[in-house]
Design brief:
The complex is a heterodimer of chains A (357) and B (173). Chain A has 357 residues and is an all-alpha fold. Chain A is 69% helix and 0% strand. In chain A, helix 1 crosses helix 2 and helix 2 crosses helix 11. With 173 residues, chain B is α+β, with helices and mostly antiparallel strands. The longest helix of chain B is centred in the N-terminal third of the chain and has 26 residues. The chains are: A mainly alpha (357), B alpha+beta (173). At the A-B interface, helix 2 of A face helix 1 of B.
Chain lengths: 357, 173
């Protein structure tokens, strides 16, 4: 993959390892976070018949850049009663949790940090760090609202991981693999090969799977929405009840890191859904590079398609945010334990039976 | 069980209906007006900042008396017999030096009551409504056209003229 490419280029394992580790952050996550925050505000504005940021640059394009500059200049406030060690570790841990997931997300057939066979398993395991970071932030803030938000977040993420994992299991049963690269490679060429349309094999199984894949998609979309603490499941942040939840006490760059982690998380789950159901980095209509016989264009197109799919799902998340009101805590638990988990479980059984045909 | 499935169905349908509404609003033009660049036209009988055209002011003090909040302060000095102050645009003869004409816009309630009594129509509302200041004292507008020295001079002249009069009166007797 990309590591081998740099290893062959430089011959230094340390340099190429570092480079591969930093690359997604610099080439993708930071620009994406800048873009997504602006997109969020613009989408919010236009849905509410406003304009959103308009003053910095053309139609407010540089607004988030200005915000970042402001955040960098800000004083880093640590209150006297905070647990200083945990307070400082928490944002880093949260960001590590969401950033580590990007190691195995295949942006294109060559842009992939590590081609793990257990990629999905790794993502589920490593994003667990986010809960630790959030809980730690809430505890160390020594603020009742922060702690309340953090505890809600922990309860919520733990509950919603179950339907997510069950749906992922059903996909794993069909493919017989846990590697995201295999997922993407299986759904090659045209959009009817995507797993949302029953996978690449053209037989009875494919048509039987389609409705259950849609059920799986809806379940995983709702549960990942809850895992990244987005509205309607944003009770950990719930600005009207808890100020802003676990990051109330944070200021300056630490706050920015939480924000970055949130947006990185949003993209990570969107990318996961795109990879599992919507063909990963593959184009839905075949490649221009194949048509024009330019082989180096294919990875670029793949990157483009992957980003577009990811950003589309991020957009749907924002769209939902400005559509639905926030759920109560008990409603949140009802949705997870009484609806999503039974549905996903039945779905898992049916998909399992179909995959035996 | 039937209710369970009905719940799921109604949840999905209502979410989709809501999303349809928000998607429609995403594309209809926004109602925001980019204020300093774009301004709404003012209503027909709007009341804004006052202006006093001192060329026409005869110093009659009627506007100050009409003011319900006493934000207009006027001081006048009689002109000496030889001095000619000219005429206003509607033919009234000016007989007073206006040595002080201040309007405190921090007090002003924009009731327009001062505008109607004016015999020469020299105090009127303009279209300016953006004149906020950092210091309240900057909101006291001075409209008198005389300079500070001139004002003192006029007062002094009149005082001396009265003194002269008194003197000549007492000499006669």
């Amino acid at each position: 993959m990309i590591y081998d490419f740099f290893y062959n280029l430089t011959g230094s394992a340390l340099f190429s390892g570092l480079f591969v580790a930093i690359m997604p952050l610099l080439t993708f996550i930071l620009p994406f976070a800048l873009f997504a925050v602006l997109l969020e505000r613009k989408v919010a504005g236009h849905i509410q018949d406003r304009l959103g940021p308009m003053r910095v640059g053309y139609h407010g394009l540089l607004q988030t850049v200005a915000d970042i500059i402001k955040l960098i200049q800000k004083e880093d406030i640590i209150a006297r009663e905070n647990d200083k060690l945990l307070f400082n570790i928490a944002p880093v841990l949260t960001f590590v949790g969401s950033y580590a997931a990007f190691a195995v997300i295949p942006f294109s057939s060559i842009f992939l940090g590590a081609n793990l066979d257990l990629a999905i398993f790794y993502i589920i395991a490593v994003t667990g760090l986010v809960v630790v970071g959030i809980l730690m932030a809430g505890w160390a803030s020594n603020n009742k609202y922060s702690l309340l938000g953090a505890m809600r977040s922990a309860a919520q993420i733990v509950s919603y991981e179950i339907p997510t994992i069950i749906v992922i299991l059903s996909i794993v049963m069909i493919t017989g693999s846990m590697s995201l690269m295999t997922f993407s490679e299986n759904q090659t060429q045209y959009f009817w090969n995507w797993y949302i349309f029953g996978g690449p094999e053209f037989n009875l199984k494919k048509f039987l799977l389609i409705p259950f894949m849609f059920v799986g998609l809806i379940v995983i979309y709702i549960s990942t929405l809850a895992e990244v603490n987005r509205t309607p499941f944003d009770i950990p942040e719930a600005e009207s009840e808890l100020v802003s939840g676990y990051h109330t006490e944070y200021s300056g760059m630490k706050f920015a890191i939480f924000f970055l982690a949130e947006y990185a998380n949003m993209f990570a789950v969107s990318a996961l859904i795109a990879t599992m159901f919507f063909g990963g980095y593959h184009s839905p209509f075949g490649y221009l590079g194949n048509l024009l016989n330019i082989p180096w264009m294919i990875p670029v197109e793949q990157f483009f398609w992957f980003i577009s799919k990811g950003i589309f799902f991020v957009f749907v998340q924002m769209w939902l945010r400005w559509t639905l009101p926030r759920l109560r805590v008990d409603q949140l638990m009802t949705v997870s334990w009484k609806y999503l988990i039974p549905i996903s479980f039945v779905n898992l059984l049916i998909v399992g039976i179909i995959s035996l045909i | 069980m039937a209710e369970y499935i009905k719940n799921i169905y109604s949840a999905l349908i209502t979410i989709l209906v809501g999303m349809k509404v928000t998607l429609r609003h995403l594309f209809i033009p926004s109602v925001t007006i980019q204020y300093p660049d774009v301004k709404i036209p003012l209503p027909e009988r709007e009341r804004n900042r006052l202006y006093v055209n001192m060329d026409d002011c005869i110093g009659c003090d009627q506007c100050a008396r009409a003011c319900p909040v006493n934000c207009i302060e006027i001081e006048t000095v009689k002109a000496l017999p030889g001095e000619d102050l000219g005429k206003t645009s509607n033919g009234k003869k000016k007989a007073l030096w206006v040595t002080k004409f201040t309007i405190d816009f921090a007090k002003c309630c924009y009731c327009q009551l001062c505008v109607f009594p004016c015999p020469t129509d020299c105090i009127y509302m303009t279209y300016v409504y953006e004149f906020s200041e950092y210091d309240r004292n900057n909101l006291i507008y001075d409209f008198a056209t005389l300079t500070k020295e001139e004002r003192e001079e006029k007062k002094e002249n009149y005082r001396r003229f009265i003194e002269q009069k008194e003197k000549s009166k007492s000499e006669k007797e």
